[in-house]
Design a protein that fits this description.
single chain; 151 residues; Arc Repressor Mutant, subunit A; 8 helices; 64% helix; globular
């Protein structure tokens, strides 16, 4: 008969402060997405189109990688890319490392729209702008630490 042992962290219930922090993180995420959807709408984009365009403004990516980052099916990504391509915001190009693979890439206009989207987020202008530089640095560092990317 095998017994499984749990570590104290697995069996201990979260304390009130942890629960409050988790709730606040959820509120921040919800507010960010609502603001992002509104900013996207101002450019006649859906939230998914805006997120995809934002990713592609950083670097060209294959459809499979886009699907992973957006946490959706590759067939959904194809439709989003098709619509953005029809508007001249995205283009498909062969991957220089493997010509069988197509990369989606933001056009100059797509990068401009992505920049406008980022700059248009009230969330970045209002609550974050109300923090001092030191507070924003501290928040950034804590978030990176939570995500395991403290670089």
């Amino acid at each position: 008969m095998s017994t499984s042992r749990s570590t104290p962290a697995q069996t201990r219930r979260p304390d009130a402060l942890t629960l409050e922090v988790v709730e606040l993180i959820g509120d921040v995420v919800s507010r960010f997405y609502a603001d992002y959807e509104e900013a996207a709408g101002e450019h006649a984009l859906t939230g998914a189109q805006a997120r995809l365009l934002s990713l592609l403004s950083l670097e060209p990516l294959p459809m499979r990688k886009l699907a992973q980052k957006l946490k959706c099916e590759p067939s959904n990504v194809t439709g989003i890319v098709d619509r953005l391509e029809a508007r001249g915001l995205v283009e498909r190009r062969p991957d220089p490392a493997d010509r069988r693979v197509k990369l989606a890439a933001a056009t100059d206009e797509g990068r401009r729209v992505a920049r406008d989207l980022r700059e248009g987020l009230r969330f970045a202008r209002e609550p974050l702008a109300g923090l001092t530089d030191a507070e924003r640095l501290s928040l950034r560092d804590l978030l990176r630490r939570m995500l395991g990317t403290d670089a």
